[in-house]
């Protein structure tokens, strides 16, 4: 029987993950099955147990289950522990081992694909939820300069700053103070504000001359923030499609010991997204 892998999330109707992993497996000649399992949060633990009993050896976890997965793992990688969320599962003799490949995926996309030098960049991170926690440690490790975390609810921003435990490099500020924060060289939208048609009101004063904007969302959800970045004359406006492909490649490597080449797949997904956006 082929090795069994699955994505757990709720909903999973529009996910690209099965397509991405099947393409990697095909390219590398690896025999595996990968399916999407729509899992209500209340049923997640039972669903994982059923999957393991049926021979499941690895999984991915997406919204809204990443934090629950963190709580269900028998052990955790350092990145998962720092993020307090898990997007990749590996079955071991004593239960699930949890990893978080989002941060590594983002850094890989920005540095390798977009040729961005992250070192020394003054960074503004908008949001302090699961997505922000997933990427913040990897950005610090990649050598960004100071990071300011701004979140709608200030307590959550403070919690993320405490968790990152990098005194002098990371600070939280209030959303109302955005006008007074000065300018940044990297601004990352890790909020879910635009996922349901909402907007983010941001001042142009955040833009420095070598200013880059990154939205962890892709498709329609990334459009409002990236449009703001372009209007503010960003050198580059990057959505989360490349991060999605790269975090998948990182997970794939942990399962199979081989990292797939991502360029062709990224190019075809990018072409489809461009077509979809012009067709709207
Ligand atoms: P995810 O796993 O996608 O990060 P999450 O943990 O629910 O999801 O976090 C959502 C993030 O988007 C949070 O930072 C949230 O701010 P709060 O902590 O104040 O809730 C942010 N967010 C959601 N809607 C927003 C809005 N309309 N304006 C600004 N921030 C918003």
TrEMBL record:
Q: Which InterPro entries match?
A: Aminoacid_DH-like_N_sf (IPR046346), NAD(P)-bd_dom_sf (IPR036291), SDH_C (IPR041121), Shikimate_DH (IPR011342), Shikimate_DH-bd_N (IPR013708), Shikimate_DH_fam (IPR022893), Shikm_DH/Glu-tRNA_Rdtase (IPR006151)
Enzyme Commission number(s) of this protein: 1.1.1.25
Organism from which the protein derives = Pseudomarimonas salicorniae
Role played: Involved in the biosynthesis of the chorismate, which leads to the biosynthesis of aromatic amino acids. Catalyzes the reversible NADPH linked reduction of 3-dehydroshikimate (DHSA) to yield shikimate (SA).
Task: Please give the SUPFAM superfamilies that the UniProt record associates with this protein.
Answer: Aminoacid dehydrogenase-like, N-terminal domain (SSF53223), NAD(P)-binding Rossmann-fold domains (SSF51735)
Provide the protein name: Shikimate dehydrogenase (NADP(+))
Gene for this chain: aroE
Which keywords has UniProt assigned to this entry?
Amino-acid biosynthesis, Aromatic amino acid biosynthesis, NADP, Oxidoreductase
All residue ranges annotated as the Quinate/shikimate 5-dehydrogenase/glutamyl-tRNA reductase domain in the record: 117-195
Q: Where is the active site?
A: 66
Q: Which Gene3D superfamilies match?
A: Leucine Dehydrogenase, chain A, domain 1, NAD(P)-binding Rossmann-like Domain
Q: In which pathway does it act?
A: Metabolic intermediate biosynthesis; chorismate biosynthesis; chorismate from D-erythrose 4-phosphate and phosphoenolpyruvate: step 4/7
Q: Which family does it belong to?
A: Belongs to the shikimate dehydrogenase family.
Catalyzed chemical reaction(s): shikimate + NADP(+) = 3-dehydroshikimate + NADPH + H(+)
Domain SDH C-terminal stretches:
240-269
Q: Which PANTHER family match?
A: BIFUNCTIONAL 3-DEHYDROQUINATE DEHYDRATASE_SHIKIMATE DEHYDROGENASE, CHLOROPLASTIC (PTHR21089:SF1), SHIKIMATE DEHYDROGENASE (PTHR21089)
> What domain of life does the UniProt record list for this protein's source?
Bacteria
Q: Where does NADP(+) bind?
A: 127-131, 216, 240
* Gene Ontology MF, one: shikimate 3-dehydrogenase (NADP+) activity
Residues binding shikimate: 15-17, 62, 87, 102, 218, 247
